[in-house]
Each structure stands twice: as structure tokens, then as C-alpha cells.
Amino acid sequence: MRVAVDLLTFPFISGRHALDFVGTVGKRGSADIERLQTADDLARWSEEAGLGRSIADDADLEAARRLREALYSLVLSTLGDDPARPVDVAVVNEFASVETAAPSLGLRSGTIYRKDSAAPASAVLAVVARDGIDLLTGPDAALIRDCEDPTCTLLFVDTSRSHRRRWCSMNRCGARAKMRTLRST
Ligand SMILES: [Zn+2]
What we know:
Layout: H1 17-22, E1 25-26, E2 33-34, H2 39-48, E3 54-55, H3 58-79, H4 86-96, E4 104-108, E5 111-115, E6 119-120, H5 121-137, E7 144-146, E8 155-157, H6 170-184
Helix pairs in contact: 3-4, 3-5, 4-5
The site of zinc ion (ZN) has 8 residues, from α6.
């Protein structure tokens, strides 16, 4: 199946690294769009997520997907009635226990800059796993929502003042819903 290019664009709409990472699979349960198709995709996600450059290989890609699905399953357990599974808890803990990369300053002719050396993918996944732990056990857990579009499965933290955000984003699903309403009236 050919997937349009824009469907493979990583969404960063959730407000949390952990949920953005879960969103690297689109339209779960229907089209199942896998946006982490190669190790390079994983490295690109890390950079676009603002987590710095990283080096990823095929084993990292497989590991990343394992962490992602564990996070997804745990988030679902907070949204629905299914109890959280010990296996998913163990996976997230395993990834979170890895050391993260320390940021460092460089100095050139009296001017400081941020040294941007590429981190191993495992360090990036550790940041994502730790964010997942903070998310699932912090105040944001109660604000996790599922986009109301019937085929979109993106998750986000509803930080809107009224707590009535319905769509992953107005550009994606909000606009489509508006069009549907206009057409049906
Ligand atoms: Zn959506």
C-alpha cells in the first residue's frame, strides 16, 4: 500500500515526548501507519522531538517499537478499564534505567555554545521512558485524551483551560470535522 508522504510526518502535538513517541504509529487498528520504518527514522524522530541527534541501528529500532507499544498499552490502561500489565511496566522500567546523555557546553573564543554530539538511541529512549513514567504517575495522567476523529488514534494531554480539547490538532482532525459538519448542513 502506498502511504502519502504527509502521513509519515511525525506528529508533535501531544505536549509530551512519551505520547509523541506513541504517535509514531498512526491510525492504530485501521491503516496502522508505521512512521518508524528504519533506524534513520528513529534518529530523525529524536532530532525533531528536540532530543538531539542520535545514532540508531536496527536493534535500536526494534527496541524503540517495544518501548512504544508498552507505553501505548499503559496509557490505554489509564483511559479504559483494562488493568495495566506487568510486562509493560517492566519494559518501561528497563528502558528508563539506561543512562541519558549529559548536555555539555562548548567554548569558542569566549562564546559558549551547546555541544551537540550524537547520543546512542538507548539514551534517547531512556528520556522517552522516563517521560512516560512522569506522565503516567503525574497530574497530566488525568488529562490524556484520545483524538475524537474516528480513525485518528493520536493521544494528547489536554492542557486547554476549559479541558475540552477534542482534536489532536485543528489542522489535522479539527478542520476535517468542521468540513464534515459544513457539508452535512
Ligand atoms: Zn486526530
